[in-house]
Automatic annotation (TrEMBL):
A GO cellular component annotation in the UniProt record: membrane
Protein name: MFS transporter
Biased composition (Basic and acidic residues): 499-512
Record domain Major facilitator superfamily (MFS) profile: where: 10-461
Annotated compartments: Membrane
The keyword Ubl conjugation belongs to this UniProt entry's keyword annotation: no
PROSITE patterns: MFS, SUGAR_TRANSPORT_1, SUGAR_TRANSPORT_2
Recorded topology in the membrane: Multi-pass membrane protein
Domain of life assignment: Eukaryota
Family under the similarity heading: Belongs to the major facilitator superfamily. Sugar transporter (TC 2.A.1.1) family.
Primary localisation category: membrane
Length: 512
């Protein structure tokens, strides 16, 4: 028996799965610069070794995301996320008890497996229970939860850094289990996705969930009847065409959607945002900050990340996915090239071995240029948080039909994590070897993604999932698509798989 029907409360619980990723980011970024960590696992951990430790989590996330599609289709969205919560607790125990780098890497890989599951299936779950007019902001809450996890864990780690010995990092690593425990038990009180239930021919349960969430518990509501009719038509249409397989995602009729979903996640990594998240202490050390000033200044970007994600959740469904992505990539490109220019013009190579023995901190800049580098870094984070951060999670689940959505989003999310893995490993040696030119690399990526989005990424905001299906069937050019101001459910014909539309006469802000 479900006791929670409020969509915002349901989203808040489900998005704790996103907070797990945020906790992991800060549990590493806030600790790698502390003496206790470097003395216990070091001394002077080589940049490639630290890159491997950091990359273990996204490496596990890649595997977890790939597995999550199969699990989600078999067990349901809700129970798959619960499995992810259990795995997170196991990984956190291993990390907390780590005696050497090998054990730390193993624990982070297991944690990553959990993050891969949750990051792929939480957006799917929310997409399938949310109304079209608020779907973007609800799925975008996944990113907001990530930013909260980053900020909370950073300050926990910062506070624990004053403790002596290994407790300064073991306590934060152990506290990572708390949100996973809340997530696991909280999900017992949430409904399963009505669309997944329909795919399992559990129609009565599906109708009950829709009535509970969007019909005030009234199964005779015209809206509930309309929604069930739309879902039934879509399920029957999909079953008459093909079974869900990974291979189908790469067939001619689906390849464009797969390509867009994959690159949404790939580009979100190639913006360079996680360089700021994982290695911000290295960046600010190169800008001349030290000690507590370094940690506190680093934490400001996490506060910015949280604060600037919220406006995106409010306006994203009105403003649209395309404009948000285009403006974001353009702004980030500007700040990245600005930082490269500042470091190249006013900086110089650090002493051999790097600043304070950290080889990745291989460049120094001082004076007003140092303040400008810090300012551009903050502006970069703000630009990402209000654009690509939430949209990169909301966009892919909207692209795919029901029968493929779980596996499709799993593949897209796995692309995110394999690039996260590569960048986590690549960045420390890159800072050591090509120094400030790292910013040019990511600036060029931002320029490329701006062009890519303009020509190939269609608008999905405000459209029902069935209406999006029609848009792809008609092959509408991306630059001619716009935010849908009126929600009009699309009905699938009984013969030939043709699409037809019938306006909603009541509750026009229907679920999708």
């Amino acid at each position: 028996m479900y006791v929670i029907s409020n969509i915002y409360f349901i989203t808040a619980i489900a998005c704790i799965g996103g907070a797990l990723f945020g906790f992991d980011i800060s549990s590493m970024s806030a600790i790698i610069g502390t003496d206790a960590y470097n003395q216990y696992f070091g001394p002077n951990i080589p940049s490639d070794t630290q890159g491997g430790i950091t990359a273990a989590m996204p490496g596990g996330s890649f595997v977890g995301a790939l597995c999550s599609g199969w699990l989600s289709d078999k067990l349901g969205r809700k129970y798959t996320i619960q499995i992810g919560a259990i795995i997170w607790c196991i990984g956190s125990i291993i990390i907390c008890a780590s005696q050497n780098i090998g054990m730390l890497v193993a624990g982070r890989f297991i944690n990553g497996f959990s993050v891969g599951i949750c990051s792929a299936q939480v957006p799917v779950y929310i997409t399938e229970i949310a109304r079209a007019d608020i779907r973007g902001r609800l799925v975008g809450c996944q990113q907001w939860a990530i930013t909260w996890g980053i900020m909370i864990m950073f300050y926990i780690s910062f506070g624990c850094s004053y403790l002596k010995g290994t407790s300064s990092f073991r306590i934060p690593w152990g506290l990572q289990m708390v949100p996973a425990i809340i997530l696991f038990f909280g999900l017992f009180f949430l409904p399963e996705s009505p669309r997944w239930l329909a795919r399992q021919d559990r129609w009565e349960e599906s109708e009950n969930v829709i009535a509970l969430m969007h019909g005030g518990g009234d199964r005779t509501s015209p809206y509930v009847a309309q929604e069930i009719q739309d879902i039934r038509a879509l399920v029957e249409f999909e079953r008459s065409n093909a079974d869900a397989t990974f291979l189908e995602l790469f067939k001619p009729k689906m390849i464009m959607r797969t390509h867009i979903g994959l690159f949404t996640q790939i580009w979100s990594q190639l913006t360079g945002m996680n360089v700021m998240m994982y290695y911000i202490t290295y960046v600010f050390a190169m800008a001349g900050l030290t000690g507590n000033t370094l940690l506190v200044s680093s934490s400001i970007q996490y506060v910015i990340n949280v604060a600037m994600t919220f406006p995106a959740l409010v306006y994203m469904d009105r403003f649209g996915r395309r404009p948000t992505l285009l403006i974001g990539s353009t702004l980030m490109m500007t700040w990245l090239f600005a930082n490269a220019g500042l470091l190249a013009s006013y900086g110089h190579a650090a002493p051999p071995g790097g600043i304070d023995g950290v080889a990745a901190a291989s460049w120094e800049v001082g004076g007003h240029a140092s303040k400008a580098v810090i300012a551009c870094s903050y502006l970069f984070v703000a630009s990402y948080a209000v654009t690509w951060g939430p949209v990169s999670w909301a966009y892919p689940p909207e692209l795919f039909p029901l029968r493929l959505r779980g596996r499709a989003v799993a593949i897209c999310t796995s692309a995110n994590w394999i690039f996260n893995f590569a960048l986590g490993y690549f960045v420390p040696p890159a800072f050591e070897n090509i120094k400030w030119k790292v910013y040019i690399v990511f600036g060029v990526f931002c320029a490329a993604m701006t062009i890519h989005v303009f020509f190939l990424f269609p608008e999905t905001a405000g459209k029902s999932l069935e209406e999006i299906e029609e848009m792809f069937e008609e092959k509408t050019p991306a630059w001619r698509t716009h935010v849908s101001k009126e929600i009009r459910p699309v009905h699938l014909g009984k013969s030939g798989g043709e699409f037809s539309e019938k306006p909603v006469t009541e509750h026009s802000d229907s679920a999708v």
